[in-house]
Amino acid sequence: MQERPDLIVCEECDAVHRRPTLRHAEIARCLRCDAELERDTGSRLQHLLPLTVASLIMFVIANSFPIVQIELQGLSSQTTLVGAVMVLNTEGMSLVATLVLATTILFPLVQMLILLYLLLPAARDVRRPGVKTLLRLMQIVRPWGMVEVFLLGVLVALVKLSNMAEVLPGVALWAFGALTILLTVVVSFNPRYLWRILVTAPAGNEKGAP
Q1: Whole-angstrom Cα distance, residue 29 to residue 146?
Q2: What is the pTM of this model?
Q3: What residues have CB less than 8 Å from 73, skipping those under 6 apart?
Q4: DSSP result, 59-96
Q5: Residue 135: left if φ>0, alpha if ψ -120 to 50, beta else—which one?
């Protein structure tokens, strides 16, 4: 089937439109269902790479240091996220451990590594193999990254535990907060625009693509 880069199909109602030429910050919407067809991404692609690198740094910190330290009657206890997953597994809650591991560690890490792989060669005006497969994989795992849900659950648990013991936030808790904000910005970038820039755009024009 011959590709028609001058046409664009609405993801919501499958209506076919001629691809518009957008000015700065403009958004094109479907005439039938008003869904977003295209948007001018401006310099967001250039900003996406440093944000992804910052997310990876926060991810490493969040998983390397204790989340909280709990002190009760002279006894102190602290653990990392990986340590909590291991405890859940040894306590017979392997399903819960698997869900926590997948949604807070594995899937967010996959998204960030894919973005890093795709954005680095784009910044150097070089293409790498596997772009289509990786973009599809990122689209699949994106809804399953739930760092913000984990952080909310930890905060609720800390509020309840504070009535029974002294709770000291660890470095990882602050790192998870920063990671949540960074991932919200990074993941909000529609992979469809990366597809257009990295796959359908002519070779050597990635930098100039909107």
Answers
A1: 29
A2: 0.73
A3: none
A4: HHHHHHS-SEEEEETTEEEEE-HHHHHHHHHHTT-HHH
A5: alpha
Q: How far is CA 89 from CA 59, 83, 131, 147, 192, in A?
A: 22, 10, 35, 20, 38
The amino acid occupying position 36 is E
Tell me the pairing of strands 68-72 and 166-169. Answer: antiparallel
Token representation of residue 41: 């991404």
What does the pLDDT profile of the chain (210 residues) look like in tens digits?
Answer: 445 666 778 877 878 878 777 777 677 888 889 887 777 666 666 788 889 999 999 999 999 988 888 877 767 777 888 888 888 888 888 898 899 899 889 999 999 998 888 888 655 555 667 777 888 888 888 888 888 888 888 888 888 877 777 778 888 889 999 999 998 888 777 777 777 666 655 444 444 333
Q: How far apart are CA 186 and CA 111, in angstroms?
A: 10
Task: Please give the radius of gyration of the chain, using alpha carbons only, rounded to the nearest integer.
Answer: 21
DSSP 163-179: TTSEEEE-HHHHHHHHH
- Please check whether residue 169 is in contact with residue 178, taking contact to mean a CB–CB distance below 8 angstroms: no
Q: Side chain identity at 59, as an amino acid letter?
A: F
**Dist CA 80 CA 103 (whole Å):** 16
Closest CA to 81 of 7, 161, 154, 27: 154
The structure tokens listed for 21 are: 């030429």
